[in-house]
Amino acid sequence: MKKPLFVVVGTMVAAAVVAAAILSSGGKSDANAYSLSASRAPGTSPAAALRTAGSAAKHDPQPEVKRPVVKKSGPLPVAEVRELVYGFGRMQVGTKDGEHTFIIRNGGEADLELTAGKATCQCTTFSVERETVPPGEESRVFIRWQAKRKDLMFRHGGDVYTNDPKNPTLNFAVEGAIDEATELLPSTDWDAGIVYRDRPTSFKAFVGSRVFEKFAIESIGAESEFVTIEVQPYEKNPLSSDTWLCGYHILVHVSADIPLGSFSDVVTIKLDCLERELVIPLKARKNGEIRYLPTPGTTFLPDQMLLRLGIFPAAQGASGRIMMIVNHDHLNEPLQLTEIEAKPSWLKASLEPAGSATGVTRRYTLTVEVPPGRPREQHGEDNFATLVMKTNHPTGESIHLDVFFSSN
After folding, report:
1. What's the pTM?
2. Looking at 197-312, which runs of residues are DSSP E strands?
3. C-alpha triplet 88, 90, 96: angle, nearest 5°
4. CATH of the domain at 352
């Protein structure tokens, strides 16, 4: 099959562009020609590399910088610099731009010509104060950078080209860490896990800063009476690689007196270094006389009471099984589901004994089924299918289950 004409023509044009660039440099392999060869990905044809180079040249809005002419003999300039790299330490994201000035001194016997190259990043501006520097005088190089986003290994700047034969290119850069004012770990929902009827649970979190050497927690608290919070100052271990300058350990206690089932609350933290409050959702779950365990072949998350049935054909349906361990201390008959509230209404649930009784505990298998032939539906995090099942247990304990599935 013949190649389309526009592909062949495009390749020829790109090749001509690159060939012209090489010829204009006197036939020598300049930096641009080298980068074309070196950057070509393994398995990429030369023609494809040429097309890529031609496209880049066509769309590059920045013209090439005209460098000063370097003489090899006669009175010569000498470019002297005190520093090429400036470390600014740490900056907070979103603060005002950083600025630094480098100095270039002419220690030679002829005028020093300077031309600013391109900045290495759009977040950085780069300029030279004086392009012609007489012997014994100085010129300043200005660099300004923006702290728009987190970058713990920030390094940007640019080149200054000179007519000093020993230093034709001076590479200036600023480097440091741009970081958020504080960091909260975990950063989103706090899950305290399972609370048992005779045992509370605790959850550990941390708030720290790599920008501020000192900050304070002005207030911290939860809305529920069942939640208490302790705060302990962070103490840096000399042997640790942590980079925190200041921080606090946060210990959240959830009481065993919370109601059975899922529990949710909100923790609010006010720091003196932030204008806004930190608001973090907190959740836990209290297990009563019934414990839940996954069974082989079924994806079930007991901490979340979430059953995942996955993706399946609607005509085929799907089911999953959950093991339940029930305290029969005050239950004189088999556990039964006395009332089922399902969403969607055709979602089914059934309960069967599993094995023989062991002491005061018995095992049951809870089966959840999406019957074959039901409508195609998707139930994910925003709209889980749900089952609320009341039982005949003397404590009145009920079963609340979320179900994830997608039938097609």
Report:
1. 0.54
2. 201-209, 217-222, 227-233, 246-254, 261-271, 278-287, 290-294, 299-301, 306-312
3. 80
4. 2.60.40.10
